[in-house]
Design a protein that fits this description.
Helix content is 34%, strand content 15%. By secondary structure, it is α/β, with parallel strands linked by helices. Strands 8-7-6-9-10-11-12 form a seven-stranded parallel sheet, with helices on both faces. Strands 2-1-3-4-5 form a five-stranded parallel sheet. It starts with 16 loop residues before the first helix and ends in a 12-residue tail after the last helix. Bound molecules: nicotinamide-adenine-dinucleotide. The site of nicotinamide-adenine-dinucleotide has 30 residues, from helix 5 and helix 7.
């Protein structure tokens, strides 16, 4: 690992008694900087995976001690003040870094927003610039994890393994009532968004022997080389038996699947979304499933997931009527934003986040940060 040079020791701003004892516990030089980061929306997997890697990082550093604290609370206007006195915050997909939140963070001394994910659609980048905050992220951890999970959702929606498993466990070994699926081989499969994850997905789809139709604002040569055909959005809607949404959530992609699109879709189409919930107008999706235009959906994300995902609501009332309908519909298979959740991806998320923090603590700023947004 790269040693931090003495020239960088001014990066950590506060130096209190706790910092002194941390330095002592790592037998650091008196000049060592303690760099403090508050990790929001912490569930047990976050802590279990960050703590050993932070410890290992600190064992290898002479002039910096990284002190990572954790809170289970999400970042929002009510919790932003927790970060007063920290140098950075570490955020996840459902933390809100709006302009008012970023102002509080900046006033409290925070200098860097470290996303421990690829997406940054909940960070107001203009406000971050205004308040002098750097934003870094983990641009790629495992595109395989997300692409493979998207396929798992497709296979469950198509072959009804979620229903079949429940029935078999209840000793109902019949094939009656709703287990019939279709071959993916030979079907028209549409992939909207052929970036890092979309490209891996395309290669898996080709492995099924499906016809691969793709849509993106940029065409990727590797997708064409593997036999993918770039077509218009409308063609995807009209001829595809399966549609995967693999683009980021942007103003241009919000509610890609909406009420106006429903009449264009091939009857019985299966829609899979592992990207961001906002790509789908959920009420329109439910209408499409009720009318039979949409045959089923596999969703790892939901547009209003922020209030629920990553928390245990099993003993409480889910009071979002749209989410209730999603949960109650057997043609919809749902997971709670876990597409990324593999051993390989987590290791990469943690190591890249620590590298991002290290760079910032060395005094690197703005676009010079390797993973700046
Ligand atoms: P990427 O940036 O590599 O690829 C995104 C692709 O979308 C690019 O090819 C881009 O040109 C295309 N695109 C942009 N605007 C578009 C538009 N208007 N219409 C069509 N295509 C458009 O991103 P990625 O690494 O492949 O990730 C895709 C998304 O997956 C991320 O934005 C993130 O939201 C989501 N994601 C989800 C999870 C999860 O656990 N569920 C994990 C990681 C990423």
């Amino acid at each position: 690992q790269t040693k931090i040079t003495r020239a960088t020791k001014t990066a950590g701003k506060r130096d209190d008694g706790a910092s002194e004892s941390l330095r002592q516990s790592y037998r650091r030089s008196d000049d060592a900087v303690v760099f403090k980061v508050l990790c929001y929306d912490t569930t047990s997997w976050v802590r279990e995976n960050f703590e050993p890697q932070v410890e290992a990082f600190n064992q290898n550093q002479e002039f910096i001690v990284l002190k990572m604290d954790y809170t289970a609370d999400r970042l929002d206007v009510n919790t932003a003040s927790y970060a007063v006195g920290y140098d950075g915050v570490c955020l996840f997909v459902n933390d809100t870094a709006s302009a008012d939140v970023l102002q509080i963070l900046s006033m409290g001394g925070v200098g860097v927003i470290c996303m421990r994910c690829a997406g940054f659609d909940r960070v107001d980048l203009n406000a971050a610039k205004t308040f002098g905050l750097d934003v870094v992220r983990v641009p790629a951890y495992s595109p395989y994890a997300v692409a493979e999970h998207a396929i798992a959702l497709l296979m469950s929606v198509n072959r009804k393994t979620h229903s079949a498993n429940t029935r078999v466990k209840m000793a109902n070994f019949t094939l009656d009532s709703g287990l019939l699926g279709m071959d993916i081989h030979g079907k028209n499969v549409g992939v909207m968004g052929t970036g890092k994850i979309g490209q891996i997905l395309c290669s898996i789809v080709k492995g099924f022997g499906a016809n691969l139709l793709v849509y993106d604002v940029f065409e990727a040569d590797c997708v064409k080389e593997m036999g993918g055909k770039y077509v218009s959005k409308e063609e995807i809607y009209q001829i595809c038996d399966v549609i995967f949404l693999m683009m980021p959530l942007l103003p241009a992609t919000k509610h890609t699947i909406n009420a106006d699109v429903l009449p264009l879709l091939k009857k019985g189409v299966i829609i899979i979304n592992t990207s961001r919930g906002g790509l789908i107008d959920t009420t329109a999706l439910l209408d499409g499933i009720k009318s039979g235009i949409i045959g089923g959906a596999g969703l790892d994300v939901y547009e209003n997931e922020g209030d629920y995902f990553f928390q245990d609501w099993s003993a409480k009332n889910v009071d979002d009527p749209v989410l209730q309908q999603l949960l109650g519909n057997n043609k919809i298979v749902m997971t709670a934003h876990q597409a990324f959740f593999t051993r390989e991806a987590i290791d990469k998320i943690v190591s890249t986040t620590i590298e991002n923090i290290q760079e910032y603590s060395e005094g690197i700023r703005g676009k010079d940060l390797s993973n700046s947004v």
